[in-house]
Design a protein that fits this description.
It is built from 10 helices and 11 strands. By secondary structure, it is of the alpha/beta class.
């Protein structure tokens, strides 16, 4: 089979996600391609196929209306699969209600949300992670208390954790200003004086702290387990976690601090500051032992590859995209084209105006 990925970002064309950055570099995307090749299949970003008629499956990780319009117009709608990678707090369409709309366009959906999987049209997918252990060398006494690495985001969805994350950040930077740091895109240093910008090396930064805030973007769901907790494990820092209801199906309770068990931030702070080196090292030892088990299997690229193949082999549903649904796709495609042209036009106008202003300023200086 030939699999095509519809890139979720314009910068990811030309198979960039499958190209190693160095001779020994590996990540989940590179391993995913290897998994397909090992099984006699191939996978590329869609732009790499000269003839898209040879593609057996198109994986949409976002609603790209250009490719939706093109593939439906060509009659390839039964080869399209929507891969839900984010919760509805990030993308509202990735909800139970949203899936009903998506099933009018896609014959199949792949999702991490185990409560919605029916193995008929909605199939299980894992969120792959490449586990490599690289613990830091700093002693317990030399580490500061707490760090947070995340983007600054907002959502009106009821199960979002963005606001809770910011509440914790505000508490610790006010009460432990010398022991807390904030990293990630989108934060304002005027509002959050603990902000240190983007982390040049996540592993190194984590190695400078005892604990890391590890809140998923949402809670109260099954299966949404992302890199947030695993990055902590592989970097040798103890995570304070809240997110998936079934986290202990994969991660033993003695490997992380359960945020939900604390009645207040003051109580959490006391627990962290009172912890001695012996107890702390028990957490790290448990984490190290976990990384030496088969924890990687359910989150591996091989498992994702097998999930996709299973779905393609088991699924026999043929969809006929209704005319009014196609009109909606076409309308969205036109809107995106128009907005793209408007952005380009604004850039050109700005360039012209800046150039004219520079000429005018130079003429004035000459006079």
């Amino acid at each position: 089979m030939n699999i095509a990925i519809i890139p979720w970002d314009e910068s990811l064309i030309k198979d960039i996600i499958f190209i190693p950055k160095s001779a020994d570099y590996l990540d989940s995307h590179i391993l995913l391609r290897k998994a397909f090749l090992d099984r006699g299949h191939d996978i590329h970003t869609i732009d790499m196929y000269e003839n898209i008629e040879e593609v057996d499956c198109f994986l949409f990780f976002t609603l790209n209306y250009y490719w939706l319009h093109k593939l439906v117009k060509m009659g390839f709608e039964n080869r399209m699969v929507y891969c839900s990678s984010e919760p509805d707090v990030v993308k509202p369409i990735n909800s139970k209600k949203g899936y009903k709309r998506l099933l009018d366009i896609f014959p199949y959906i792949m999702t991490w949300n185990e409560d919605l999987v029916d193995n008929k049209r909605i199939f299980k997918r894992n969120i792959p992670y490449y586990f490599t252990k690289h613990f830091g060398n700093k002693n317990f006494k030399d580490r500061k208390l707490l760090v947070n690495m995340s983007s600054n985001k907002f959502s009106k969805q009821p199960k979002e954790l963005y606001s809770e994350r910011e509440r914790i950040i505000t508490f610790f930077e006010r009460n432990y200003p010398d022991e807390f740091a904030l990293y990630g895109p989108g934060w304002d240093k005027k509002k959050h004086p603990s902000y240190r910008g983007l982390a040049a090396d996540k592993d190194k930064v984590y190695g400078d702290y005892k604990f890391a805030l590890s809140l998923e973007n949402t809670y109260g769901v099954k299966g949404y387990i992302t890199e947030k907790i695993f990055d902590c494990f592989t970097s040798g820092i103890v995570p304070i976690y809240k997110g998936a209801d079934n986290i202990t199906d994969f991660v033993p309770k003695d490997c992380f601090i359960d945020y939900s068990e604390f009645n207040s931030l003051q109580e959490l702070a006391r627990y962290l500051t009172d912890m001695d080196e012996i107890k702390y090292n028990k957490y790290l030892n448990n984490i190290s032992k976990l990384l030496d088990t088969d924890i990687s299997v359910p989150f591996s690229s091989d498992t994702l590859c097998e999930n996709i193949i299973y779905m393609l082999e088991k699924g026999h549903y043929n969809i006929n995209v209704k005319y009014f649904v196609y009109l909606g796709i076409l309308f969205r495609y036109w809107i995106e084209c128009a907005s793209g042209k408007w952005i380009l036009l604004k850039k050109k106008l700005k360039k012209i105006l800046v150039g004219k202003w520079a000429n005018y300023a130079n003429e004035k200086k000459g006079n």
